[in-house]
């Protein structure tokens, strides 16, 4: 793999802000930066650039290997044609196959070793599911495309890293389905990922409680005693520095955060509310456990501002930078 192996950025939901963010990310490129290319429809990106008044020349490429030469003077686009014209803010199920194809082709390139990693733009999950997509999100889809590996979804910003143990479930289902084996699995993936991809030799895991006041000695729930404490002890027996259960309302403030490298949280919003509150613009979503690098902005499709030119590319830029760092650690 050459040191100029590019990153592949997927189109995400074409009616969302992904196209605008990709154009702005190319504009923010700096000399010496690792190149990236977009898996998207070149005509629609060129039209979007004109509509938004951003000066971004678009150049079609046939293979990832052509991205490095094109990147300094134009945004390289590996064509994935859309079936229907795009109306910003109004996802069309007819374009779901192209959105999915972009992800699948990125994974094929990653497996073939022609790219250094994948950065995904946000998808409109319900639109894909209406088209027959069986997965709750990228995380689960990528795990399957990688051959059924075990993964964890981590969100990271400079001040905090969080992993929701249960991911894309209703709160009721998350509570019902919580079990110790899931916590142990997430803890193992977290420890390995932080060591191998983030250079933290002995990662410290803070495991959140599920209930208020960590269950108040059973008066407010017994999941801590029955599920979470045994899982923490199992991780400790494996030599992983896990501690908890930590009451979730007091573990994310500034003075508490330096005591751990990642917070293992019991459900989606327990993890994502603190990080998006601390750093919505700079947060990055990373899938740990994959045999290739995958990052993403922390936010979604932002349909309410799509096509207005108001989308902030900071999180996509942070995702690109983090994918570059992780790829270097993997020797790309
Ligand atoms: N990795 C992915 O594919 C993700 C996909 N989603 C999907 O996105 C869709 C919309 O989700 P929401 O909960 O509405 O969250 P959202 O993040 O799309 O929007 C929440 C609010 O933040 C604003 N916002 C988001 N990104 C912004 C940006 N770059 N610049 C300026 N403002 C921005 C939006 O305008 C909106 O007001 C859902 O279908 C969800 O499943 C959500 C998160 C991640
Ligand atoms: N809220 C985070 C999120 O939905 C990320 O999902 P994924 O598509 O990256 O799995």
From TrEMBL:
GO terms for molecular function: 4-hydroxythreonine-4-phosphate dehydrogenase activity. InterPro entries: PdxA, PdxA_fam. Its cofactor is Zn(2+); Mg(2+); Co(2+). It is an enzyme of class 1 (oxidoreductase). A divalent metal cation binds at residues 168, 213, 268. Substrate binds at residues 138-139, 276, 285, 294. Pathway: Cofactor biosynthesis; pyridoxine 5'-phosphate biosynthesis; pyridoxine 5'-phosphate from D-erythrose 4-phosphate: step 4/5. Its main location: cytoplasm. The keyword Metal-binding applies. It catalyses: 4-(phosphooxy)-L-threonine + NAD(+) = 3-amino-2-oxopropyl phosphate + CO2 + NADH. It comes from the Bacteria. The active site is located at the dimer interface. Belongs to the PdxA family. This is 4-hydroxythreonine-4-phosphate dehydrogenase. It comes from Reyranella aquatilis.
């Amino acid at each position: 793999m050459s040191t100029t192996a590019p990153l592949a950025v997927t189109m995400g939901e074409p009616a969302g802000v992904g196209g605008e963010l990709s154009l702005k990310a190319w504009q923010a490129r700096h000399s010496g930066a690792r190149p990236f290319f977009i898996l998207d429809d070149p005509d629609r990106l060129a039209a979007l650039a004109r509509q938004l008044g951003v000066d971004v020349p678009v150049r079609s490429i046939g293979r990832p290997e052509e991205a490095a030469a094109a990147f300094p003077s134009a945004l390289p686009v590996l064509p994935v044609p859309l079936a229907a014209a795009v109306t910003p803010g109004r996802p069309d199920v007819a374009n779901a196959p192209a959105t999915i194809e972009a992800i699948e082709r990125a994974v094929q390139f990653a497996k073939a070793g022609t790219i250094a990693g994948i950065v995904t733009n946000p998808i409109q999950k319900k639109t894909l599911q209406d088209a027959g997509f069986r997965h709750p999100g990228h995380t689960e889809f990528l795990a399957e495309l990688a051959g059924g590996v075990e993964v964890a979804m981590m969100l990271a910003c400079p001040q905090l890293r969080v992993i929701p143990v249960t991911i894309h479930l209703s709160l009721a289902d998350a509570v019902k389905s919580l079990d110790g084996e899931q916590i142990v699995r997430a803890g193992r993936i977290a420890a390995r990922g932080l060591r191998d991809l983030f250079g933290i030799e002995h990662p410290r895991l803070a495991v959140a409680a599920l209930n208020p006041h960590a269950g108040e000695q059973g008066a407010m729930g017994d999941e801590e005693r029955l599920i979470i404490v045994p899982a923490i002890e199992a991780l400790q027996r494996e030599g992983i520095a896990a501690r908890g259960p930590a009451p979730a309302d007091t573990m994310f403030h500034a003075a508490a955060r330096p005591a751990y490298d990642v917070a293992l949280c019991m459900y989606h919003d327990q993890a994502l509310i603190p990080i998006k509150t601390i750093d919505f613009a700079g947060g990055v979503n990373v899938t740990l456990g994959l045999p290739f690098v995958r990052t993403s902005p922390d936010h979604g499709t932002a349909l309410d501002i799509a096509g207005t030119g108001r989308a902030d590319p900071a999180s996509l830029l942070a995702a690109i930078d983090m994918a570059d760092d992780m790829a270097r650690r993997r020797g790309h």
